[in-house]
Amino acid sequence: MATTVLKATDLCKTFSNESVQQHVLKNLNLEIRKGDFTVIMGDSGAGKSTLLYSLSGMDHPSLGSILYGDEEISGYNNDKLAIFRRKHCGFIFQQNYLNDTMSVLDNIIVSGLLKTKNRKEISERAKVLLGQVGLDEKCYNKFPNQLSGGEKQRVALVRSVINDPEILFADEPTGALNSQNTAAVLDVLSEMNSKGQSIVMVTHTIAAAERGNRILYLRDGVICDEITLSPYNGEDKERHRELRAFLSDMGW
Fold first, then answer.
1. What is the CATH number of the domain that holds 72?
2. Which is nearest to 67 in space by CA: 94, 50, 86, 88?
3. How many domains would you assign to the chain?
4. What angle do CA 30, 32, 35 make, to 5 degrees?
5. In b/e form, how buried is each residue of 30-52, taking b as 16+ CB within 10 angstroms?
6. What does the pLDDT read at residue 1?
7. What residue numbers bound the domain in which 148 lies?
8. Residue 235: predicted pLDDT
9. pLDDT in tens, 62-109
């Protein structure tokens, strides 16, 4: 049985605006297993990103608990959450958030320095990872504005895993890319997952959802259903039909 790396219990998130309260997450329970590629889907406003940010320690839940192993992070203040994220989590978003005044290599190294001060070690690891995502030494000293959208997102992906995170959180990581670059980034994520990287990803596209082995469907702040699939191999038509049928049942 796979190890549980994250457990959320009775998770609630409420946003208040003057006299109006919006209950975005409602007593949600969820376990994330080591090595899973977990995909969160749902309609707009279902609470997908809110759930991702709560699970990753980027936001505070209103009620409930979140356990990473034996570490309860729900009540951490912002400083303790920042330290926790630095040690355990990687993040990739729809926007790459690269620093345009720094080279590709320095964008990655500066993130690595948050965990260790061995710049040479970080630089060598960054170069290996860049090679794994199809970016060679020609890009090391380029600036982000000299890269294509897909190249930028692959750099952001390397930056997100430079510190060997226990879980990689991805919020619509291909939402701003064309179909060719989308496939390239998803291929990288699939390859990382095949080597044991745990991933939790929010998406609204079936092309991205297909990469997961566990698909959760969120509606009105609760998980209304989920499906477990075989690992992605790109050619399994029955797996594709199974996912399509599940999403159709969910009203997607």
1. 3.40.50.300
2. 88
3. 1
4. 160
5. bebeebbbbbbbbeeebbbbbbb
6. 63
7. 4-249
8. 81
9. 999 999 988 899 889 999 999 999 889 999 998 999 999 999 999 999
